[in-house]
Design brief:
By secondary structure, the chain is an alpha/beta fold. The protein folds into two domains: about 5-225 and about 440-455, Rossmann fold (3-Layer(aba) Sandwich); about 235-435, Glycogen Phosphorylase B (Rossmann fold), CATH 3.40.50.2000. The protein is about 45% helix and about 20% strand. The chain has helices spanning about 25-35, 70-90, 100-115, 135-145, 160-165, 170-175, 190-200, 230-235, 240-255, 270-285, 305-325, 345-350, 365-375, 405-420, 420-440, 440-455; strands at about 5-10, 40-45, 55-60, 60-70, 125-130, 150-155, 180-185, 205, 210-215, 215-225, 255-260, 290-295, 335, 355-360, 385, 400. It has a ten-stranded mixed β-sheet, with helices on both faces. It has a six-stranded parallel β-sheet with strand order 13-12-11-14-15-16, sandwiched between helices. Strand 9 (about 210-215) and strand 10 form a beta hairpin. Helix 10 packs across helix 14 (about 405-420). The mean pLDDT is about 95.
Amino acid sequence: MSRLIVISNRVSAPTKEQPTAQGGLAVALTAALREAEGIWFGWSGETGETGELKFETYAGVTSATIDLPEQDVEEYYEGYANRTLWPLFHYRLGLTEFERDFQGGYERVNQLFADVISPHVEPEDLIWVHDYHMIPLGWLMRQRGVSNRLGFFLHIPWPPTDLLVALPDHRRMVEALFAYDVIGFHTREWLETFHDYVVREMGGSVGPDDLVTVGGRTIRAIACPIGIDAREFISAARGDAATATYERMMQSADGRALLVGVDRLDYSKGIEERFNGYQRFLETRPEERAKVTLLQIAPPSRATVQTYQDIRNTLDALSGRINGAFADIDWVPLRYVNRGLPRDVLAGVYRAARIGLVTPLRDGMNLVAKEFVAAQDPEDPGVLILSRFAGAAAQLEGALLVNPYSPDEIADAIARALSMSREERIERWQPMFENVRDHDVIWWRKRFTNALAAVQPTEQFA
């Protein structure tokens, strides 16, 4: 059996300090690494002088991490990854910063990863690179003599060609992707926008069986939607911590319908627009005001980036304005929590919610939507209100789909969800649950790695 080599910006393999893998992606990759006796490479998250890789094996999984100098973190991670690629790939050209230093740091760190990882690769290893932080890594490893099967998965949207061409050296970035043998996207939409760029900008062609050709190089590009660790999360939703949280939430709601949003604090998640939609609901339906309450959980992220500081300030002010305008002596319409909660606690929150509000402005997938579905009571499920611009919308057809930019659509969807009969809620929830259960993160991982294992190494890289 071939070893699996996973490479990502950060490593989430279990360690002595953190013995349990965090999140569905980490669970899936950890299981695969344990089966294949593989290694997970990435940045340690620490700053310091770059030294040797630090290897650690725990619970049958080996991780290898390296520190990065502070300048590299500023230019590669905070700069090019999160101030250039992230906003551009989420269709936010106005927030995209084009700095030559950022691009230099990005290329420098990817070269560093190629230098330190390539000597540890064995001839039969399958190599799986993850996300926008590492787009050129495959090409750089090829330059260092790595001829293995190489796969890449993009966890965020692929932008339209008319946006992508705003990126300096955009063609060189996409050409680097053709060093991989298999590349994956969450949805057909992202795959087709990639096809469009290849045909329009590179003169390439798209053939049968997901094959894409540019010049003399043909790769396989697939739609492969990620799922959650469904079995574990469904079980957690019925566990002691979730049950205690559910009871606490129901007592706190005091007979009111609970609306829940759970998002990392990021402008792509549409939290400001969600608050505006909720405010519109309160304004236009005064008779419903005291019958609902919204709980928004939004742990901070990337706090050193100015745009993230700005969104936090905006949401602080907006939540205060909503509560100031509509609260009564015995009711607060919006509870806004700026910290994360354990997943088993979140499962109890989801289970208590009558409505899940998942309204990103643009999202590669959005696993909160799938977690909400998985946590519901089959006899009395809640209603999922979902942005049509989330990747999950292609799979969760029983959700109420909304344009997150429209406060009226959000307000109308809340009203419809509150009045929806139990029979309709079950009818909508059941097929969504089956999709979440059957197309889980293990299914996703196997679909991609099976496609990669089936590739025949080409003479170009052999």
